[in-house]
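Recall that a protein's primary structure is simply its ordered list of amino acids. Everything else, from secondary elements to tertiary packing, is in principle encoded there. The following example makes that idea concrete.
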Amino acid sequence: MASVCLNKVCVDIPIYNSQGRSLKKAILGMATGGKIGLNENGKTIVRSLDNVTLSINPKERVGLIGHNGAGKSTLLRVLGRVYEPTYGIAKIAGRVGSLIDVSLGIDGEATGIENIFLRAALLGIPKEIVNKELDSIIEFSELGDFIHMPVRTYSTGMHMRLAFAVSTMISPDILLMDEWLSVGDKGFQAKAEKRLNRLIERSSILVIATHSRSLIEKCCTRVVWLEHGKIKMDGTPNQICPIYFS
């Protein structure tokens, strides 16, 4: 059964060559992001998550809100097992799927078809499943004969459509997203949203970082408000959205 349990999790990001940074920049960093300080070895660090305790159960759809630098992306990376906590314990049960960077692993010199297999391999999708779904991926991406061309010849929109089509093949227990994905024109966006909704329905837990009130009210059952790496509020959209977005 999918579940998330974080107990007093802290994530410290080391800052190198910090001696060359001005006090003014350090003060600005404190105002907009995590806390700047020194670790036990005297090295400068930014505490991106600070004593975060959080449990997420099956069927919960959690929206992460907060200003830029509040710790949303860091929390997603902890849930995705990209970052290990500096302190505290993170227990994540279930298969995790991430749509944080759908273009990760795309090779500009390889063709569209070759990149489908490359990206799928990074996502842990077996080759036999890719072979089975290949025609539908090509059709969904609307790339036509460009699917046989190197990706470096693609426009940004074509690149994103290909990456999105492959990345949404996953069937995770825990789905992580950083903002709602916007790819292609309005017609394709409508088709992409339907595909995303099916992916969300297949997932037991959704965690999405967003600045969109409408998205939270539409898709989320719970909202976690982060500020300077700490949880400021945790409740329903009806409880938190009127306070945060006002």
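Helices lie at 23-32, 72-79, 112-122, 127-141, 156-167, 186-202, 213-219, 237-244. The first helix runs from residue 23 to 32.
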